Structure formats: C-alpha cells, structure tokens
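R.M. (postdoc): so does anyone remember the format we settled on? I'll just put the structure tokens first.
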C-alpha cells in the first residue's frame, strides 16, 4: 500500500485483489478486505479513497466482513450534531481468512468431484 497523504492500494495490492476475485470473492469485498488488513482501524471514507470504491460498495463489503466475523464496527460520536462515524477494524488475521477461504474452496472441489463421480456411474448404464 502506498502512502499519498492517505493509504492507497498499489499495483501489488491489485494483483492480490485479482487473485481473490479469481477465487470467487467479489472485487469490492477483496479491495475492502485488503485495505483494512493493512491499517489498525479506519473509517469507511478512508476505505473509499484508499481502495477507490464508492460509499455503497464499501458499506456492502463491510457488512459481509462483519457477517463473516472478520471485522467489527464501532461508532465514534462527532462533536456537535450529526451521525456518528463508523470505524472498522479487522478482527481476524489475513492468514486465517485465507485458510477459511481455502477450506470453502476445497469443499466446493470435493462436491464437484462427488457430483462428477455420481454422474459417471449413472451414465454407465447408457453405455451398455
């Protein structure tokens, strides 16, 4: 990640995002995950700028990260009136997230393998 006044995903980060998306992760989720994995905590506006995403994209990605138990959100009250600011923090190490993704993908591979074997055995009767 490059630092240009604020943290910004760089070319190496783009390659990592591409690998995540090749594995089936939505690009916005991959960018958000990679961004927050490289900072202690951040506001959604920082993710928007650093990962080059729009606010709704960050919001959806953060919901998914929280749903999976990989991130938390806390509200920080602003001075004066107005809505609180959401601050996000990754709660699961990236290495563990990758292990979880690997387990998911291996289950998918095994399920496909089982379906193919079942199909082969069912179609054997047509080859006689």
């Amino acid at each position: 990640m490059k630092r240009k006044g604020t943290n910004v995903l760089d070319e190496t980060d783009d390659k990592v995002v591409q690998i995540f998306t090749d594995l089936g992760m939505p690009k916005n989720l991959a960018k958000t995950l990679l961004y927050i994995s490289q900072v202690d905590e951040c506001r959604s506006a920082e993710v928007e700028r650093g990962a080059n995403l729009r606010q709704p994209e960050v919001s959806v990605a953060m919901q998914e990260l929280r749903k999976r138990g990989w991130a938390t959100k806390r509200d920080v009250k602003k001075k004066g009136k107005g809505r609180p600011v959401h601050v996000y923090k990754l709660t699961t190490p990236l290495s563990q997230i990758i292990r979880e993704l690997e387990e998911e993908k291996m289950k998918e591979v095994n399920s496909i393998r089982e379906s193919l074997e079942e199909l082969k055995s069912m179609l054997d009767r047509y080859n006689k």
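R.M.: ...and that's the designed sequence above, right after the tokens. Also worth knowing: Helices lie at 11-22, 27-37, 44-51, 55-67, 94-123. Strands lie at 2-3, 7-8, 42-43, 71-76, 85-90.
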